[in-house]
Specification:
The protein has about 190 residues and is mostly helical. It is built from 8 helices and 3 strands, in the order H-H-E-E-H-H-H-E-H-H-H. It has helices at about 5-15, 25-45, 60-70, 90-105, 110-115, 135-140, 150-155, 175-190, and strands at about 50-55, 60, 130. Strands 2-1-3 form a 3-stranded antiparallel beta sheet. About 30% of the residues are buried.
């Protein structure tokens, strides 16, 4: 099983390479929570073996919080020296890419709001308590929360799914070009 540190390094790596909103300790903890939830939903099992606790500002993996608390509210500026961006199995790398794509549009405060929704596992767990894996799985199995798998998106666009994420997989300078291409393909697909 992948460790919470492997997943944290991958999410920080994505944020550093893709010009996403800088990954602070708080943002990283929310992304880890969403990644775990989507892994439970898509794969049926946890992505990593670490508990989330219900803290004031949402779900937190204590080991990750303590590792990066020295950053305060500042962005995490580097991954661990031994981190290998190609070290995750393709299925997990693609899942984390899907999570990054889904949540990159939200500010950190919006991610907190998403995790605080009424009826969410965080809202149903006493502050400081461990959020159960079963509660997370049940919450993320709701249709409105499910991820559209990257491979499914790519097939709809007529592109072969990725086997592994290529290094430098995102160039922000290409966003406008690809947004136009995707919109054109989606319009053509909708007309058929």
């Amino acid at each position: 099983m992948t460790t919470v540190f492997d997943v944290a390094n991958t999410l920080v790596y994505f944020s550093l390479k893709c010009d996403d909103e800088p990954c602070t300790n708080m943002r990283l903890n929310k992304l880890l929570y969403f990644a775990q939830g989507h892994a439970l939903e898509q794969l049926g099992s946890p992505l990593f073996d670490a508990d989330f606790e219900a803290w004031e500002f949402g779900p937190v993996a204590p080991d990750i919080y303590h590792k990066y608390k020295y950053c305060g509210n500042n962005p995490i500026s580097a991954v661990d020296d031994e981190f290998d961006p190609n070290g995750l199995p393709p299925e997990l790398a693609n899942l984390l890419a899907e999570v990054s794509v889904k949540y990159e549009q939200y500010s950190t405060s919006a991610l907190i709001g998403i995790s605080h929704q009424p009826g969410s596992p965080w809202s149903e767990t006493p502050r400081g308590g461990v959020i159960s894996v079963e509660a997370i799985k049940k919450w993320f199995n709701r249709p409105e929360i499910k991820l559209v798998p990257l491979g499914e998106r790519m097939r709809k666009l007529g592109v072969a799914p990725l086997e592994v994420l290529p290094s430098g997989w995102h160039d922000p300078d290409d966003d406008d070009y690809w947004a136009g291409e995707v919109n054109a393909l989606e319009r053509a697909s909708a007309q058929n």
